[in-house]
Specification:
Blueprint lengths: L1 H13 L5 H16 L2 H9 L15 H4 L11 H14 L17 E5 L2 H21 L4 E8 L12 E7 L4 E5 L1 H4 L3 H8 L4 E4 L2 H12 L6 E3 H9 L9 H9 L7 H4 L10 H22 L9 H10 L14
Parallel strand pairs: 1-4, 2-5, 5-6
Antiparallel strand pairs: 2-3, 3-4
Helix pairs in contact: 2-3, 2-5, 6-8, 10-13, 11-13
Length: about 325
């Protein structure tokens, strides 16, 4: 009978609100653990200056049930920390899920919407390409298009409305071709076989440009195929630009639906649309540069090695891999 009364008293005591002294002690413990190494944390908790109760006990379930029973206000800094900790303790979040910072184009966005503006922008890009050719460098342009989607059955999506082209981290051209059309200068750039246009599903984008504007986009390289060549030894994977961005540079490519599925045929693009379009083209260019630095996987295709050996004798010590730079 006496033991039962003691147990009842103990349970009743556990359901009582913490005293101010106990709350300060718990908050001090949380702060000490989060800001110190494990060794220093133990010393700090065991120091004589710590006046927290020496009797250990479980946190009563009553303090987790609702904020109504919590004997402190939400705007108290120490209490807020404790509340957040308790919420995280009870949550069932996947700790393996990583939150990456977002990638965003930080250079100058050159927006053109009239025929004369697009022509001028295209000539600037042609000069950029010619300068690269003189330097003997690899000429690569991140390439992407946007169009107005449709949400009605039987209604075709809009024509290719926006074309974004990026050749470095400093400038990105966003051209509103639904209003300007494709002038001869831009056609020359798109049809240039020495200038590689890269992107995920870039072939599909090129087909749409040809279907909508009767202009061919030459010299294409799909980033998903390149990633499978560089990264995957077995079955190929269908990469998205977002998954490549997370895998290779540990950043998230923002794809808000209100922008991605918005109206790209408006009279003038918003700042958010311009940033979205420029970031996509920049990410394509940048991911290509990253992938090209990866070595090709070891030769596991004996037929290819034999073909290369037959076509050109190998120098002493030369590798028998057919690596295209």
């Amino acid at each position: 009978m006496e033991n039962q009364e003691q147990l009842t008293t103990l349970i009743s005591d556990l359901d009582q609100p913490f005293t101010e002294e106990e709350l300060k002690a718990i908050d001090a413990a949380f702060e000490a653990v989060s800001s110190s190494s494990p060794t220093s944390s133990v010393r700090k908790l065991d120091s004589p200056a710590d006046h927290r109760p020496k009797t250990r006990r479980r946190l009563p379930e009553s303090i987790k049930e609702s904020k109504r029973k919590t004997p402190f206000k939400e705007n108290n800094s120490m209490s807020s920390t404790r509340l957040r900790w308790l919420k995280n303790l009870d949550s069932h979040q996947d700790k393996s899920t990583l939150i990456y910072p977002e990638v965003s184009f930080q250079g100058k966005i050159v927006y053109s919407r009239t025929a004369s503006e697009v022509d001028r922008a295209s000539k600037e890009l042609l000069k950029f390409v010619q300068a690269k050719k003189k330097e003997g460098g690899h000429i690569v342009l991140g390439f992407d298009i946007e169009w107005k989607p449709t949400f009605k059955r039987g209604v075709l999506p809009g024509k290719a409305a926006v074309m974004q082209i990026c050749g470095d981290a400093n400038h990105c051209h966003v051209m509103h071709i639904i209003h300007s059309g494709i002038p001869s200068s831009l056609r020359s750039l798109l049809e240039d076989p020495s200038c590689i246009k890269v992107g995920v599903n870039v072939g599909g984008d090129a087909n749409k440009v040809y279907k909508d504007h009767k202009v061919s986009v030459e010299a294409l390289e799909d980033l998903s195929s390149l990633a499978n060549q560089k990264l995957i030894g077995g079955n190929p994977k269908r990469w998205s630009l977002g998954s490549l961005t997370e895998t290779l540079i540990c950043k998230k490519l923002p794809k808000p639906s209100r922008i991605r599925l918005g109206n790209w045929e408006v009279a003038a693009l918003s700042k958010a649309q311009l940033q979205y379009a420029a970031t996509d083209a920049f990410a394509s260019w940048y991911i290509y540069e990253v992938l090209k630095k990866f070595p090709d996987p070891p030769c596991n295709k004996s037929e290819q090695v034999e073909t290369v050996a037959q076509q050109q004798p190998l120098a002493d010590g030369a590798a028998a891999c057919n690596i295209s730079d």
